[in-house]
Protein backbone atom coordinates (compact mmCIF):
# COMPACT_ATOMS: atom_id res chain seq x y z
CA UNK A 1 0.00 0.00 0.00
CA UNK A 2 1.12 3.55 -0.65
CA UNK A 3 2.54 5.64 2.15
CA UNK A 4 -0.23 8.15 1.43
CA UNK A 5 -2.86 5.88 2.91
CA UNK A 6 -0.81 5.21 6.01
CA UNK A 7 -0.83 8.83 7.09
CA UNK A 8 -3.59 10.21 9.21
CA UNK A 9 -4.25 13.25 7.08
CA UNK A 10 -7.87 13.89 6.20
CA UNK A 11 -7.08 17.12 4.41
CA UNK A 12 -3.89 18.25 2.73
CA UNK A 13 -3.82 21.59 0.98
CA UNK A 14 -0.84 22.52 -1.14
CA UNK A 15 -0.09 25.79 -2.83
CA UNK A 16 -3.72 26.92 -2.89
CA UNK A 17 -4.36 30.02 -4.97
CA UNK A 18 -7.73 31.69 -5.47
CA UNK A 19 -9.14 34.91 -6.83
CA UNK A 20 -12.36 36.87 -7.07
CA UNK A 21 -12.49 37.96 -10.68
CA UNK A 22 -9.20 39.69 -11.27
CA UNK A 23 -8.24 40.21 -7.65
CA UNK A 24 -6.15 37.46 -6.05
CA UNK A 25 -6.94 36.63 -2.44
CA UNK A 26 -5.08 33.38 -1.71
CA UNK A 27 -1.38 33.21 -2.61
CA UNK A 28 -0.31 29.62 -2.19
CA UNK A 29 -1.55 28.32 1.16
CA UNK A 30 -0.33 24.95 2.37
CA UNK A 31 -1.60 23.22 5.47
CA UNK A 32 -3.06 19.93 6.62
CA UNK A 33 -5.58 18.55 9.08
CA UNK A 34 -5.33 15.09 10.61
CA UNK A 35 -8.27 12.85 11.23
CA UNK A 36 -9.99 13.69 14.52
CA UNK A 37 -8.16 16.99 14.93
CA UNK A 38 -9.62 20.42 15.60
CA UNK A 39 -7.46 22.93 13.74
CA UNK A 40 -8.01 26.66 13.49
CA UNK A 41 -7.19 29.30 10.97
CA UNK A 42 -6.49 32.49 12.91
CA UNK A 43 -5.95 35.86 11.35
CA UNK A 44 -7.13 39.43 11.04
CA UNK A 45 -10.15 40.58 9.14
CA UNK A 46 -9.55 40.28 5.43
CA UNK A 47 -6.65 37.84 5.82
CA UNK A 48 -8.35 35.27 3.60
CA UNK A 49 -9.78 32.78 6.12
CA UNK A 50 -13.31 32.75 4.72
CA UNK A 51 -11.93 32.62 1.19
CA UNK A 52 -9.89 29.56 2.17
CA UNK A 53 -13.01 27.74 3.38
CA UNK A 54 -14.92 28.79 0.28
CA UNK A 55 -12.10 27.53 -1.92
CA UNK A 56 -12.01 24.19 -0.08
CA UNK A 57 -15.78 23.85 -0.45
CA UNK A 58 -15.65 24.75 -4.15
CA UNK A 59 -17.89 27.81 -3.69
CA UNK A 60 -14.94 29.93 -4.83
CA UNK A 61 -14.33 28.03 -8.05
CA UNK A 62 -11.49 30.16 -9.43
CA UNK A 63 -8.89 28.21 -7.47
CA UNK A 64 -5.66 26.49 -8.20
CA UNK A 65 -3.21 24.14 -6.48
CA UNK A 66 -3.98 20.88 -4.77
CA UNK A 67 -6.63 19.88 -2.21
CA UNK A 68 -6.44 16.26 -1.15
CA UNK A 69 -9.50 15.26 0.85
CA UNK A 70 -9.70 11.72 2.18
CA UNK A 71 -6.95 10.81 -0.30
CA UNK A 72 -8.86 12.24 -3.29
CA UNK A 73 -7.94 15.31 -5.33
CA UNK A 74 -10.96 17.65 -5.21
CA UNK A 75 -9.62 20.86 -6.73
CA UNK A 76 -11.52 20.26 -9.96
CA UNK A 77 -14.83 19.16 -8.40
CA UNK A 78 -17.97 21.31 -8.18
CA UNK A 79 -19.17 22.09 -4.66
CA UNK A 80 -22.14 19.69 -4.77
CA UNK A 81 -19.75 16.79 -5.39
CA UNK A 82 -17.39 17.93 -2.62
CA UNK A 83 -20.29 18.05 -0.15
CA UNK A 84 -21.18 14.46 -1.05
CA UNK A 85 -17.68 13.37 -0.01
CA UNK A 86 -18.46 14.42 3.56
CA UNK A 87 -17.32 18.03 3.80
CA UNK A 88 -19.86 20.16 5.67
CA UNK A 89 -19.86 23.96 5.62
CA UNK A 90 -21.20 26.38 8.24
CA UNK A 91 -20.77 29.82 6.67
CA UNK A 92 -19.81 32.97 8.53
CA UNK A 93 -23.17 34.58 7.76
CA UNK A 94 -24.82 31.30 8.87
CA UNK A 95 -26.92 30.94 5.75
CA UNK A 96 -30.28 30.29 7.40
CA UNK A 97 -33.08 30.46 4.83
CA UNK A 98 -35.91 32.87 5.62
CA UNK A 99 -38.36 31.25 3.23
CA UNK A 100 -37.97 27.93 5.07
CA UNK A 101 -39.12 26.95 8.55
CA UNK A 102 -36.57 25.95 11.16
CA UNK A 103 -37.45 22.29 10.60
CA UNK A 104 -37.11 22.67 6.82
CA UNK A 105 -33.74 24.38 7.27
CA UNK A 106 -32.60 21.53 9.48
CA UNK A 107 -33.38 18.74 7.03
CA UNK A 108 -32.48 20.66 3.85
CA UNK A 109 -28.98 19.27 3.22
CA UNK A 110 -29.13 15.64 2.16
CA UNK A 111 -27.51 12.96 4.31
CA UNK A 112 -24.13 12.24 2.72
CA UNK A 113 -22.64 9.56 4.97
CA UNK A 114 -23.71 6.87 7.36
CA UNK A 115 -23.25 7.59 11.04
CA UNK A 116 -25.10 10.90 10.81
CA UNK A 117 -26.73 12.29 13.94
CA UNK A 118 -30.38 11.42 14.25
CA UNK A 119 -32.95 14.15 14.74
CA UNK A 120 -33.41 12.98 18.33
CA UNK A 121 -29.71 13.37 19.07
CA UNK A 122 -29.74 16.80 17.46
CA UNK A 123 -32.73 17.94 19.47
CA UNK A 124 -30.99 16.75 22.65
CA UNK A 125 -27.89 18.72 21.76
CA UNK A 126 -29.89 21.78 20.62
CA UNK A 127 -33.18 21.86 22.55
CA UNK A 128 -34.16 25.34 21.26
CA UNK A 129 -34.32 24.11 17.71
CA UNK A 130 -37.09 21.67 18.51
CA UNK A 131 -39.17 24.28 20.30
CA UNK A 132 -38.94 26.68 17.40
CA UNK A 133 -39.24 24.15 14.60
CA UNK A 134 -42.27 25.82 13.00
CA UNK A 135 -40.85 29.37 13.00
CA UNK A 136 -39.28 30.96 9.95
CA UNK A 137 -35.54 30.29 9.98
CA UNK A 138 -34.63 33.95 10.14
CA UNK A 139 -36.93 34.61 13.11
CA UNK A 140 -34.41 32.87 15.37
CA UNK A 141 -31.92 34.84 17.47
CA UNK A 142 -28.31 35.03 16.28
CA UNK A 143 -27.22 32.30 18.68
CA UNK A 144 -30.09 30.03 17.67
CA UNK A 145 -29.30 30.58 13.99
CA UNK A 146 -25.70 29.57 14.65
CA UNK A 147 -26.88 26.42 16.44
CA UNK A 148 -29.25 25.63 13.58
CA UNK A 149 -26.48 26.14 11.01
CA UNK A 150 -24.32 23.64 12.90
CA UNK A 151 -27.14 21.18 13.57
CA UNK A 152 -28.03 21.23 9.88
CA UNK A 153 -24.55 19.98 8.97
CA UNK A 154 -24.41 17.39 11.75
CA UNK A 155 -27.54 15.74 10.41
CA UNK A 156 -25.79 15.09 7.07
CA UNK A 157 -23.12 12.89 8.62
CA UNK A 158 -20.31 15.02 7.15
CA UNK A 159 -17.10 13.94 8.89
CA UNK A 160 -15.11 17.08 8.08
CA UNK A 161 -16.65 20.33 9.29
CA UNK A 162 -15.74 23.83 8.17
CA UNK A 163 -16.90 26.31 10.81
CA UNK A 164 -16.48 29.99 9.96
CA UNK A 165 -16.36 32.21 13.05
CA UNK A 166 -19.17 30.40 14.90
CA UNK A 167 -18.86 32.70 17.93
CA UNK A 168 -18.91 36.01 16.05
CA UNK A 169 -21.18 38.52 17.74
CA UNK A 170 -22.62 36.07 20.28
CA UNK A 171 -23.07 36.38 24.04
CA UNK A 172 -20.53 34.59 26.31
CA UNK A 173 -23.06 32.00 27.45
CA UNK A 174 -23.73 30.98 23.85
CA UNK A 175 -20.02 30.95 23.06
CA UNK A 176 -19.71 28.46 25.94
CA UNK A 177 -22.48 26.32 24.51
CA UNK A 178 -20.78 26.31 21.11
CA UNK A 179 -17.48 25.26 22.70
CA UNK A 180 -19.32 22.36 24.33
CA UNK A 181 -20.80 21.33 21.00
CA UNK A 182 -17.40 21.39 19.32
CA UNK A 183 -15.91 19.26 22.11
CA UNK A 184 -18.78 16.81 21.84
CA UNK A 185 -18.25 16.55 18.08
CA UNK A 186 -14.54 15.98 18.53
CA UNK A 187 -15.30 13.25 21.05
CA UNK A 188 -17.48 11.59 18.39
CA UNK A 189 -14.52 11.58 16.01
CA UNK A 190 -15.33 14.55 13.80
CA UNK A 191 -12.51 16.51 12.21
CA UNK A 192 -12.96 20.27 12.32
CA UNK A 193 -11.37 23.22 10.57
CA UNK A 194 -12.36 26.27 12.57
CA UNK A 195 -11.93 29.87 11.49
CA UNK A 196 -11.66 32.29 14.41
CA UNK A 197 -10.57 35.75 15.40
CA UNK A 198 -11.32 34.98 19.03
CA UNK A 199 -8.15 33.04 19.85
CA UNK A 200 -9.10 32.62 23.52
CA UNK A 201 -12.15 30.68 22.42
CA UNK A 202 -10.05 28.82 19.83
CA UNK A 203 -7.53 27.76 22.45
CA UNK A 204 -10.27 26.09 24.51
CA UNK A 205 -11.28 23.71 21.71
CA UNK A 206 -8.42 23.36 19.22
CA UNK A 207 -5.31 21.16 18.96
CA UNK A 208 -3.34 23.30 16.54
CA UNK A 209 -3.49 26.72 14.93
CA UNK A 210 -2.40 28.19 11.63
CA UNK A 211 -1.97 31.92 11.28
CA UNK A 212 -3.24 33.39 8.01
CA UNK A 213 -2.12 36.74 6.68
CA UNK A 214 -2.56 38.21 3.21
CA UNK A 215 -3.70 34.91 1.76
CA UNK A 216 -0.72 32.94 3.11
CA UNK A 217 0.00 30.75 6.12
CA UNK A 218 2.66 32.65 8.07
CA UNK A 219 2.98 30.50 11.17
CA UNK A 220 1.83 27.33 12.88
CA UNK A 221 1.38 26.91 16.63
CA UNK A 222 0.50 24.06 18.94
CA UNK A 223 -2.27 24.86 21.39
CA UNK A 224 0.13 24.78 24.37
CA UNK A 225 2.21 27.51 22.76
CA UNK A 226 -0.80 29.78 22.55
CA UNK A 227 -1.71 29.18 26.15
CA UNK A 228 1.80 29.76 27.45
CA UNK A 229 2.63 32.59 25.17
CA UNK A 230 -0.46 34.57 24.12
CA UNK A 231 1.49 37.72 23.22
CA UNK A 232 2.78 36.12 20.07
CA UNK A 233 -0.66 35.40 18.72
CA UNK A 234 -1.95 38.74 19.94
CA UNK A 235 0.62 40.50 17.84
CA UNK A 236 -0.39 38.43 14.80
CA UNK A 237 -4.00 39.39 15.29
CA UNK A 238 -3.20 43.01 15.97
CA UNK A 239 -4.69 42.84 19.46
CA UNK A 240 -1.48 43.99 21.13
CA UNK A 241 -1.94 47.49 19.83
CA UNK A 242 -5.35 47.73 21.40
CA UNK A 243 -4.01 46.41 24.73
CA UNK A 244 -1.28 49.00 24.83
CA UNK A 245 -3.75 51.71 24.06
CA UNK A 246 -6.00 50.53 26.87
CA UNK A 247 -3.08 50.30 29.29
CA UNK A 248 -2.01 53.77 28.29
CA UNK A 249 -5.44 55.18 28.92
CA UNK A 250 -5.56 53.44 32.32
CA UNK A 251 -2.18 54.79 33.30
CA UNK B 1 -84.65 36.75 -13.87
CA UNK B 2 -83.48 39.37 -11.34
CA UNK B 3 -81.15 42.24 -11.77
CA UNK B 4 -78.00 43.44 -9.95
CA UNK B 5 -77.11 47.12 -10.26
CA UNK B 6 -79.53 47.28 -13.17
CA UNK B 7 -77.88 44.38 -14.99
CA UNK B 8 -79.65 41.10 -15.70
CA UNK B 9 -78.10 38.42 -13.50
CA UNK B 10 -77.55 36.25 -16.54
CA UNK B 11 -75.43 38.85 -18.33
CA UNK B 12 -73.45 39.53 -15.20
CA UNK B 13 -72.79 35.87 -14.50
CA UNK B 14 -71.94 35.20 -18.11
CA UNK B 15 -69.27 37.89 -18.07
CA UNK B 16 -67.96 36.73 -14.71
CA UNK B 17 -67.61 33.22 -16.11
CA UNK B 18 -65.69 34.54 -19.11
CA UNK B 19 -63.58 36.55 -16.70
CA UNK B 20 -62.77 33.43 -14.70
CA UNK B 21 -61.80 31.54 -17.83
CA UNK B 22 -59.46 34.28 -18.97
CA UNK B 23 -58.25 34.47 -15.39
CA UNK B 24 -57.44 30.75 -15.50
CA UNK B 25 -55.01 31.36 -18.32
CA UNK B 26 -53.58 34.46 -16.67
CA UNK B 27 -53.00 32.47 -13.48
CA UNK B 28 -51.35 29.48 -15.18
CA UNK B 29 -49.09 31.69 -17.24
CA UNK B 30 -48.14 34.15 -14.52
CA UNK B 31 -47.44 31.27 -12.14
CA UNK B 32 -44.91 29.80 -14.58
CA UNK B 33 -43.33 33.22 -15.06
CA UNK B 34 -43.10 33.75 -11.30
CA UNK B 35 -41.43 30.37 -10.73
CA UNK B 36 -38.89 31.00 -13.48
CA UNK B 37 -38.19 34.53 -12.33
CA UNK B 38 -37.76 33.42 -8.72
CA UNK B 39 -35.05 30.85 -9.38
CA UNK B 40 -33.43 32.01 -12.63
CA UNK B 41 -33.85 35.76 -12.25
CA UNK B 42 -34.83 35.74 -15.90
CA UNK B 43 -37.96 37.46 -17.16
CA UNK B 44 -39.04 34.80 -19.61
CA UNK B 45 -40.33 36.74 -22.58
CA UNK B 46 -40.66 33.48 -24.52
CA UNK B 47 -43.53 32.45 -22.22
CA UNK B 48 -46.25 33.53 -24.64
CA UNK B 49 -44.56 31.74 -27.52
CA UNK B 50 -44.27 28.60 -25.39
CA UNK B 51 -48.00 28.82 -24.63
CA UNK B 52 -48.66 29.10 -28.37
CA UNK B 53 -46.31 26.18 -28.95
CA UNK B 54 -48.33 24.06 -26.49
CA UNK B 55 -51.51 24.76 -28.44
CA UNK B 56 -49.82 24.03 -31.77
CA UNK B 57 -48.22 20.81 -30.54
CA UNK B 58 -51.69 19.63 -29.45
CA UNK B 59 -53.09 20.66 -32.84
CA UNK B 60 -50.29 18.87 -34.73
CA UNK B 61 -50.62 15.74 -32.60
CA UNK B 62 -54.28 15.65 -33.58
CA UNK B 63 -53.87 16.45 -37.26
CA UNK B 64 -50.76 14.53 -38.14
CA UNK B 65 -50.89 11.64 -35.67
CA UNK B 66 -54.53 11.43 -34.67
CA UNK B 67 -53.63 11.85 -31.00
CA UNK B 68 -56.51 13.48 -29.17
CA UNK B 69 -57.01 16.03 -26.41
CA UNK B 70 -56.44 13.93 -23.32
CA UNK B 71 -53.04 12.48 -24.28
CA UNK B 72 -52.08 15.90 -25.67
CA UNK B 73 -52.79 17.47 -22.30
CA UNK B 74 -49.84 15.45 -21.01
CA UNK B 75 -47.70 15.12 -24.16
CA UNK B 76 -47.65 18.75 -25.26
CA UNK B 77 -46.32 20.06 -21.92
CA UNK B 78 -43.71 17.29 -21.91
CA UNK B 79 -42.56 18.07 -25.46
CA UNK B 80 -42.55 21.85 -25.03
CA UNK B 81 -40.99 21.49 -21.56
CA UNK B 82 -38.20 19.43 -23.12
CA UNK B 83 -37.64 22.16 -25.71
CA UNK B 84 -37.47 24.63 -22.81
CA UNK B 85 -34.87 22.47 -21.09
CA UNK B 86 -32.70 22.54 -24.21
CA UNK B 87 -33.13 26.32 -24.42
CA UNK B 88 -32.01 26.76 -20.82
CA UNK B 89 -29.14 24.31 -21.12
CA UNK B 90 -27.64 25.73 -24.31
CA UNK B 91 -28.65 29.40 -24.36
CA UNK B 92 -30.18 31.03 -21.27
CA UNK B 93 -27.59 29.49 -18.93
CA UNK B 94 -24.82 31.39 -20.65
CA UNK B 95 -26.37 34.68 -19.51
CA UNK B 96 -26.69 34.13 -15.74
CA UNK B 97 -23.48 35.98 -14.97
CA UNK B 98 -24.47 39.11 -16.91
CA UNK B 99 -27.27 41.64 -16.40
CA UNK B 100 -30.93 40.41 -16.32
CA UNK B 101 -31.63 42.45 -19.38
CA UNK B 102 -29.68 40.04 -21.57
CA UNK B 103 -31.86 37.10 -20.54
CA UNK B 104 -34.92 39.20 -21.29
CA UNK B 105 -33.60 40.14 -24.72
CA UNK B 106 -32.64 36.55 -25.54
CA UNK B 107 -36.04 35.13 -24.59
CA UNK B 108 -37.76 38.00 -26.43
CA UNK B 109 -35.74 37.12 -29.52
CA UNK B 110 -36.66 33.46 -29.20
CA UNK B 111 -40.33 34.43 -28.91
CA UNK B 112 -40.15 36.47 -32.11
CA UNK B 113 -38.41 33.66 -33.98
CA UNK B 114 -40.96 31.05 -32.87
CA UNK B 115 -43.86 33.30 -33.70
CA UNK B 116 -42.37 34.17 -37.11
CA UNK B 117 -41.77 30.51 -37.88
CA UNK B 118 -45.40 29.58 -37.18
CA UNK B 119 -46.73 32.63 -39.02
CA UNK B 120 -44.77 31.47 -42.01
CA UNK B 121 -46.16 27.94 -41.82
CA UNK B 122 -49.74 28.63 -40.81
CA UNK B 123 -50.52 32.28 -41.51
CA UNK B 124 -52.37 34.60 -39.13
CA UNK B 125 -55.75 32.91 -39.31
CA UNK B 126 -56.31 30.47 -36.49
CA UNK B 127 -56.72 26.71 -36.68
CA UNK B 128 -59.79 25.19 -35.07
CA UNK B 129 -59.28 22.64 -32.31
CA UNK B 130 -62.38 20.60 -31.45
CA UNK B 131 -63.72 20.40 -27.91
CA UNK B 132 -63.16 16.86 -26.61
CA UNK B 133 -66.35 14.76 -26.79
CA UNK B 134 -66.56 14.17 -23.07
CA UNK B 135 -66.69 17.92 -22.39
CA UNK B 136 -69.23 18.99 -25.02
CA UNK B 137 -72.55 20.57 -24.11
CA UNK B 138 -73.83 22.87 -21.43
CA UNK B 139 -74.47 22.58 -17.75
CA UNK B 140 -77.44 24.39 -16.20
CA UNK B 141 -76.25 26.28 -13.12
CA UNK B 142 -79.75 27.61 -12.40
CA UNK B 143 -78.84 31.23 -13.10
CA UNK B 144 -77.02 30.50 -16.37
CA UNK B 145 -75.89 27.85 -18.84
CA UNK B 146 -72.15 27.19 -18.73
CA UNK B 147 -70.38 25.30 -21.51
CA UNK B 148 -68.93 22.24 -19.79
CA UNK B 149 -65.51 22.75 -21.35
CA UNK B 150 -65.24 26.24 -19.87
CA UNK B 151 -66.15 24.91 -16.44
CA UNK B 152 -63.43 22.31 -16.90
CA UNK B 153 -60.88 25.00 -17.76
CA UNK B 154 -61.61 26.85 -14.54
CA UNK B 155 -61.53 23.76 -12.33
CA UNK B 156 -58.47 22.17 -13.94
CA UNK B 157 -56.47 25.41 -13.93
CA UNK B 158 -57.29 26.08 -10.32
CA UNK B 159 -56.29 22.51 -9.43
CA UNK B 160 -52.98 22.74 -11.29
CA UNK B 161 -52.21 26.13 -9.72
CA UNK B 162 -52.92 24.84 -6.23
CA UNK B 163 -50.92 21.67 -6.84
CA UNK B 164 -47.95 23.73 -8.04
CA UNK B 165 -48.25 26.02 -5.04
CA UNK B 166 -48.41 23.00 -2.72
CA UNK B 167 -45.32 21.40 -4.25
CA UNK B 168 -43.31 24.57 -3.83
CA UNK B 169 -44.51 25.60 -0.39
CA UNK B 170 -44.98 22.25 1.33
CA UNK B 171 -42.65 19.59 -0.09
CA UNK B 172 -38.96 18.81 0.15
CA UNK B 173 -38.44 19.56 -3.54
CA UNK B 174 -40.12 22.92 -2.95
CA UNK B 175 -37.79 23.58 0.00
CA UNK B 176 -34.81 23.08 -2.33
CA UNK B 177 -36.37 25.51 -4.79
CA UNK B 178 -37.10 28.15 -2.16
CA UNK B 179 -33.64 27.79 -0.63
CA UNK B 180 -31.93 27.93 -4.03
CA UNK B 181 -33.93 31.05 -4.85
CA UNK B 182 -32.41 32.68 -1.76
CA UNK B 183 -28.84 31.38 -1.94
CA UNK B 184 -28.01 28.98 -4.78
CA UNK B 185 -24.29 28.78 -3.89
CA UNK B 186 -24.96 27.51 -0.40
CA UNK B 187 -27.60 25.01 -1.49
CA UNK B 188 -25.08 23.65 -3.96
CA UNK B 189 -22.47 23.43 -1.21
CA UNK B 190 -24.91 21.19 0.67
CA UNK B 191 -24.67 18.63 -2.13
CA UNK B 192 -27.62 19.62 -4.32
CA UNK B 193 -26.97 19.81 -8.05
CA UNK B 194 -28.38 23.32 -8.40
CA UNK B 195 -27.69 23.74 -12.14
CA UNK B 196 -29.88 20.68 -12.83
CA UNK B 197 -32.51 22.03 -10.44
CA UNK B 198 -32.53 25.30 -12.39
CA UNK B 199 -32.83 23.53 -15.73
CA UNK B 200 -35.73 21.40 -14.52
CA UNK B 201 -37.46 24.41 -12.99
CA UNK B 202 -37.31 26.27 -16.28
CA UNK B 203 -38.66 23.15 -17.99
CA UNK B 204 -41.52 22.97 -15.48
CA UNK B 205 -42.41 26.64 -15.91
CA UNK B 206 -42.44 26.21 -19.67
CA UNK B 207 -44.53 23.04 -19.36
CA UNK B 208 -47.10 25.03 -17.37
CA UNK B 209 -47.31 27.51 -20.26
CA UNK B 210 -47.75 24.66 -22.75
CA UNK B 211 -50.45 23.12 -20.53
CA UNK B 212 -52.29 26.43 -20.62
CA UNK B 213 -51.88 26.40 -24.41
CA UNK B 214 -53.53 22.99 -24.75
CA UNK B 215 -56.35 24.08 -22.43
CA UNK B 216 -56.82 27.19 -24.55
CA UNK B 217 -56.87 25.39 -27.90
CA UNK B 218 -60.61 24.54 -27.91
CA UNK B 219 -61.58 27.93 -26.43
CA UNK B 220 -59.64 30.32 -28.63
CA UNK B 221 -58.28 29.65 -32.11
CA UNK B 222 -54.87 27.99 -32.31
CA UNK B 223 -52.95 30.84 -33.86
CA UNK B 224 -49.31 31.94 -34.07
CA UNK B 225 -50.12 35.25 -32.41
CA UNK B 226 -52.18 33.88 -29.52
CA UNK B 227 -49.15 34.08 -27.24
CA UNK B 228 -48.20 37.63 -28.16
CA UNK B 229 -51.77 38.75 -27.44
CA UNK B 230 -52.02 37.30 -23.96
CA UNK B 231 -48.47 37.69 -22.68
CA UNK B 232 -48.57 41.47 -22.28
CA UNK B 233 -51.60 41.16 -20.02
CA UNK B 234 -49.87 38.33 -18.14
CA UNK B 235 -46.83 40.52 -17.46
CA UNK B 236 -49.17 43.13 -16.00
CA UNK B 237 -50.73 40.40 -13.84
CA UNK B 238 -47.29 39.34 -12.57
CA UNK B 239 -46.40 42.92 -11.70
CA UNK B 240 -49.71 43.37 -9.86
CA UNK B 241 -49.35 40.09 -7.94
CA UNK B 242 -45.72 40.82 -7.10
CA UNK B 243 -42.68 39.58 -9.03
CA UNK B 244 -41.72 36.11 -7.87
CA UNK B 245 -44.74 35.66 -5.56
CA UNK B 246 -46.57 32.43 -6.43
CA UNK B 247 -49.68 33.14 -4.41
CA UNK B 248 -49.70 36.64 -5.89
CA UNK B 249 -49.59 35.19 -9.41
CA UNK B 250 -52.54 32.86 -8.76
CA UNK B 251 -54.73 35.35 -6.91
CA UNK B 252 -53.96 38.21 -9.30
CA UNK B 253 -54.52 35.93 -12.29
CA UNK B 254 -58.04 34.88 -11.35
CA UNK B 255 -58.84 38.23 -9.70
CA UNK B 256 -57.91 40.31 -12.72
CA UNK B 257 -59.84 37.99 -15.01
CA UNK B 258 -62.90 38.79 -12.89
CA UNK B 259 -62.15 42.51 -12.85
CA UNK B 260 -61.92 42.42 -16.62
CA UNK B 261 -65.26 40.56 -16.84
CA UNK B 262 -66.99 43.04 -14.54
CA UNK B 263 -65.63 45.97 -16.52
CA UNK B 264 -67.02 44.41 -19.67
CA UNK B 265 -70.49 44.50 -18.07
CA UNK B 266 -70.44 47.97 -16.61
CA UNK B 267 -68.08 49.92 -18.86
CA UNK B 268 -67.14 47.80 -21.89
CA UNK B 269 -65.00 50.54 -23.43
CA UNK B 270 -62.45 50.15 -20.63
CA UNK B 271 -62.29 46.37 -20.54
CA UNK B 272 -59.12 46.08 -22.58
CA UNK B 273 -57.20 48.61 -20.49
CA UNK B 274 -58.54 48.03 -16.99
CA UNK B 275 -55.74 45.62 -16.08
CA UNK B 276 -53.10 48.15 -17.04
CA UNK B 277 -54.95 50.78 -15.05
CA UNK B 278 -54.85 48.48 -12.00
CA UNK B 279 -51.16 47.89 -12.67
CA UNK B 280 -50.43 51.60 -12.69
CA UNK B 281 -52.31 52.13 -9.45
CA UNK B 282 -50.61 49.17 -7.73
CA UNK B 283 -47.20 50.33 -8.89
CA UNK B 284 -47.86 53.76 -7.44
CA UNK B 285 -49.15 52.51 -4.09
CA UNK B 286 -47.11 49.33 -3.60
CA UNK B 287 -44.33 49.00 -6.16
CA UNK B 288 -43.44 45.46 -5.08
CA UNK B 289 -46.94 44.25 -6.01
CA UNK B 290 -49.87 43.08 -3.88
CA UNK B 291 -48.11 39.98 -2.55
CA UNK B 292 -44.50 40.85 -3.30
CA UNK B 293 -41.78 41.57 -0.81
CA UNK B 294 -39.57 44.51 -1.57
CA UNK B 295 -36.21 43.23 -2.72
N1 LIG C 1 -16.85 38.38 -2.96
C1 LIG C 1 -15.66 39.01 -2.95
N2 LIG C 1 -15.25 39.69 -4.03
C2 LIG C 1 -14.04 40.33 -4.04
N3 LIG C 1 -13.20 40.34 -3.00
C3 LIG C 1 -13.55 39.67 -1.89
C4 LIG C 1 -14.81 38.98 -1.80
N4 LIG C 1 -14.89 38.41 -0.58
C5 LIG C 1 -13.75 38.74 0.07
N5 LIG C 1 -12.94 39.51 -0.72
C6 LIG C 1 -11.62 40.04 -0.36
O1 LIG C 1 -10.77 38.94 -0.12
C7 LIG C 1 -9.93 39.19 0.97
C8 LIG C 1 -10.07 38.08 2.00
O2 LIG C 1 -11.37 38.13 2.54
P1 LIG C 1 -11.92 37.00 3.49
O3 LIG C 1 -11.53 35.68 2.96
O4 LIG C 1 -13.37 37.25 3.69
O5 LIG C 1 -11.11 37.31 4.83
P2 LIG C 1 -11.38 36.85 6.33
O6 LIG C 1 -12.41 35.80 6.34
O7 LIG C 1 -10.04 36.36 6.79
O8 LIG C 1 -11.81 38.08 7.06
C9 LIG C 1 -10.32 40.55 1.52
O9 LIG C 1 -9.40 41.49 1.01
C10 LIG C 1 -11.67 40.81 0.94
O10 LIG C 1 -11.88 42.17 0.71
MG1 LIG D 1 -14.27 35.83 7.26
How would you summarize the topology of this molecule?
The complex is a heterodimer of chains A (251) and B (295).
Chain A: H1 3-6, E1 9-20, E2 23-34, E3 38-42, H2 49-57, E4 63-69, E5 72-73, H3 79-84, E6 87-90, H4 102-107, H5 119-125, H6 127-131, H7 142-154, E7 160-164, H8 172-187, E8 191-196, H9 199-205, E9 208-213, E10 216-222, H10 223-228, H11 230-237, H12 239-250
Parallel strand pairs in A: 3-8, 3-9, 6-7, 7-8
Antiparallel strand pairs in A: 1-2, 1-4, 4-5, 9-10
Chain B: E1 3-4, E2 7-8, H1 9-40, H2 47-65, H3 69-90, H4 100-122, E3 138-140, E4 145-147, H5 148-170, H6 172-182, H7 184-189, H8 194-216, H9 226-241, H10 246-266, H11 274-285
Antiparallel strand pairs in B: 1-2, 3-4
Helix pairs in contact in B: 1-5, 1-8, 1-9, 1-10, 2-3, 2-4, 2-8, 2-9, 3-8, 5-6, 9-10, 9-11
The structure holds adenosine-5'-diphosphate and magnesium ion.
Summarize this structure briefly.
The complex is a heterodimer of chains A (about 250) and B (about 300). Chain A is α/β, with parallel strands linked by helices and about 250 residues long.
Folded structure, characterized:
The complex is a heterodimer of chains A (251) and B (295). Chain A has 251 residues and is α/β, with parallel strands linked by helices. Chain A has helices at residues 3-6, 49-57, 79-84, 102-107, 119-125, 127-131, 142-154, 172-187, 199-205, 223-228, 230-237, 239-250; strands at 9-20, 23-34, 38-42, 63-69, 72-73, 87-90, 160-164, 191-196, 208-213, 216-222. A 6-stranded mixed β-sheet of chain A has the order 6-7-8-3-9-10, with helices on both faces. In chain A, strand 7 (160-164), helix 8 and strand 8 form a beta-alpha-beta unit. The longest helix of chain A has 16 residues, at 172-187. With 295 residues, chain B is mostly helical. Chain B has a single domain (3-285), classed as ABC transporter involved in vitamin B12 uptake, BtuC. Helices cover 71% and strands 3% of the residues of chain B. The mean pLDDT of chain B is 92. The complex binds adenosine-5'-diphosphate and magnesium ion. Residues 20, 23, 25, 43, 45-51 of chain A line the site of adenosine-5'-diphosphate.
Amino acid sequence: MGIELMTDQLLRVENLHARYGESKVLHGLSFSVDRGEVVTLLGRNGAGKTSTLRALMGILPTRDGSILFDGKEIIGLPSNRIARLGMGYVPEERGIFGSLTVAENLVLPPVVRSGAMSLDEIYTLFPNIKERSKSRGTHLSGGEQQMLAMARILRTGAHFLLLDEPTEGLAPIIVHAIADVIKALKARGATILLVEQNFRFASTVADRHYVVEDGRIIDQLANDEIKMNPEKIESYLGIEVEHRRKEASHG
Amino acid sequence: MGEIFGMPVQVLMGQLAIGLINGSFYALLSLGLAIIFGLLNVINFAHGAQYMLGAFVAWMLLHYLGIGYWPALLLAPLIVGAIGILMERFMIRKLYHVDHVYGLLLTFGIALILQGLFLNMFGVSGQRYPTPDALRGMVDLGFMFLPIYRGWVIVASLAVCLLTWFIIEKTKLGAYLRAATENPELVRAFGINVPVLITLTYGAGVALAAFAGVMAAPVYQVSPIMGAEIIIVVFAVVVIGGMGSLLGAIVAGFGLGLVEGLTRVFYPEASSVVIFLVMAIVLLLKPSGLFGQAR
